[in-house]
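Cross-check.
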Amino acid sequence: MVAFRKILGEVHHMYDLLIIGSGPAGISAALSAKARDLDFLWFGSRVLSPKITKAERVMNYPGLPAVTGPEMRDVFLRQIDGLGIEIREERVNSIYDMSGYYTAVVNDKMYDGRTVILAAGVSNSREIPGESRLLGKGVSYCATCDGELYRGKRIAVVCTDPSLEEEIEFLADLAAEVFLCTSYKDCGIHRDNVLHVVGYPAEILGEDRVSGLICGGETVAADGIFCLRSCVAPAALLPGLKAENGHIQVDRQQRTNLPGCFAAGDCTGRPYQYAKAVGEGNAALHSAVEYLKKLEVQQ
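Predicted model, tokenized:
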């Protein structure tokens, strides 16, 4: 069903489903969504999953005995491409429950879906104390979305992935001063207005608004904090989502505590195995289909 919503004079397409993540769970959900002829968007990468690509040998995946990680990736890509499924290689910065549908914020764009399946894996970086509490109050995950708010101001940037350094360059062009805290040593940012330290923040400071952070033994003042990671913690990605010990809480049908939101794969907990992720991705898709059917009846 093709649907739209209108906001501030603009017409937005309403998709049946948004799938976040291109590991085995996301692949499984996307293949089933295609088979069910859903109108969906799939966000991820054609690398699919670094975990797959780096695997030396996978011994327990049905139908692919003793396959290497790159071989498994190539098999998945051939199936995806053969069905004409597009992977949008854009990073989802945040998702919002709009009470009836979900909006995914991707840099300066927004995409709407009646349902969402979270299959983004697990973040290797722990949440910083104060991060969730101050999200939207000076803490941001999107340089493109919020960078202009800090033109001429002092900001701090936490980065755990060198591939995101382009966003740091963008922020450095806007801000007067940048305190850069990276979890890796070989940083490619060399700017007069950027002070770089290696480490991971101990805390983001502030009461009703960000005031600074503690990193590398230093306490610095900041008007805003940008947390740049390749994978955002589930509870931070979607406010209101219930998580425990870093994993999204789901039932046997992969339903979360938010209506129309489902989760699958490593983000739901152990075991971190491909076969488990694929099964959960398929179950999540079928639960999304049932949810969509109920919406149609209600309408």
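The two ends are 12 Å apart (CA to CA). The chain has a mean pLDDT of 90. Passed to J.P. for a second look.
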